[in-house]
Amino acid sequence: METEKQEELLKVNNLAISFYNKSGEVQAVRGITYTLHKGEVLGIVGESGSGKSVSSHGILRLTPDTGKVKSGEILFHGKDILKMSKKELQELRGNKIAMIFQDPMTSLDPLFTVEYQLDESLKKHTKLDAQARKKRMIELLNLVGINQPERRVKQYPYEFSGGMRQRVMIAMALSCDPELLIADEPTTALDVTIQAQIVELLKELKDKLGMAIIFITHDLGVVSEICDKIIVMYAGKIVEEGTSRQIFYERKHPYTEGLLASVPKLDTDSSEKLKPIKGNPPDMSCVKPGCAFAPRCGCAMQICVREEAPECELNETHNVSCWQIIKKAMEGQVTANGKE
Ligand SMILES: Nc1ncnc2c1ncn2[C@@H]1O[C@H](COP(=O)(O)OP(=O)(O)OP(=O)(O)O)[C@@H](O)[C@H]1O
């Protein structure tokens, strides 16, 4: 199992995506690099506007026409998705990589039964005949925890609750047996109990099916249970990357600290006060020099407003881009591998 995990599935290399409108360039994603191994779950966290969705939709080349990939590579099994032909891309979408979104109603057609929509998906992505598709549909609905699937498959999306609709969407996404599932804020529209159930379901599915997952969320609390590793994005960049444990217990970036302080913790007294991060994320149409978080950072130094911090490798799995940490590493207060 361990060796299987180490097989590289996706490598995003220095990816930069901008949008162009009348007032100029919006630098949504500014050179991000990360690797996802087979069967691994990666959390991408950050406040609204940090570039989580744009970077992840870019993997399936779903960037809107006003956007442009300025640089980078997106290697899937070593092959650059950005250079794939239309035919290869079609094969990839839905067959190897599937995506689920925040609001299943935008992806499910209210006018058709779940049976019809699942059948269309199976027709598109498999070579199964009508009878085998019917069987597979029931299997899929069972897999995602929908009771009485034979009855419920005949229903329309509006007859399902929000959590159940998300389960139907997950069933549709699984209809092609993807190697990678991109889940873009899949639980945000749901209430807390249902959120936890959907996260639990994704965890079970990952263990059963061995697929890799990219889980996008603004809520660090949601990903603690499911992710092997987490990248923290701010203003289109990765400011910290580490294993789930490192991000929760050994986090170093003040922004990661702020994000954690602003979400309710499941294991502590709920009366503990939440501390939202003061200020707002920067306007990405006029990016200033220096660290983008500096204006909101309680420990910013002069250099932070002048120059962007290079990535500091604390160890094999933990990287952070922050001048404070570089300073501490130089003073011997933080152990780093020496690579900056
Ligand atoms: N179609 C677009 N045209 C212009 N700018 C865009 C477009 N889509 C996204 N952006 C900008 O790109 C930046 C990153 O947006 P993105 O949606 O990736 O953020 P996010 O972290 O996923 O936030 P959210 O959680 O709100 O979806 C933002 O500044 C956003 O305004």
Explain the overall architecture.
- The chain has two domains: 2-96 and 176-283, 3-Layer(aba) Sandwich (Rossmann fold), CATH 3.40.50; 107-174, no CATH class.
- It is built from 14 helices and twelve strands.
- The protein has helices at residues 2-5, 52-59, 86-92, 104-107, 114-125, 130-143, 149-152, 162-174, 192-209, 220-223, 244-249, 254-261, 302-306, 323-330, and strands spanning 8-21, 24-37, 41-45, 67-76, 79-80, 97-100, 180-184, 212-217, 229-234, 237-243, 312-315, 318-320.
- The strands form two sheets. The chain has an eight-stranded mixed sheet with strand order 6-7-8-3-9-10-12-11, sandwiched between helices. It has a four-stranded antiparallel sheet with strand order 2-1-4-5, with helices on one face.
- The chain starts with a helix and ends in a 10-residue tail after the last helix.
- The chain binds adenosine-5'-triphosphate.
- Residues 19, 26, 28, 46, 48-54, 64, 66, 218, 284 line the site of adenosine-5'-triphosphate (ATP).
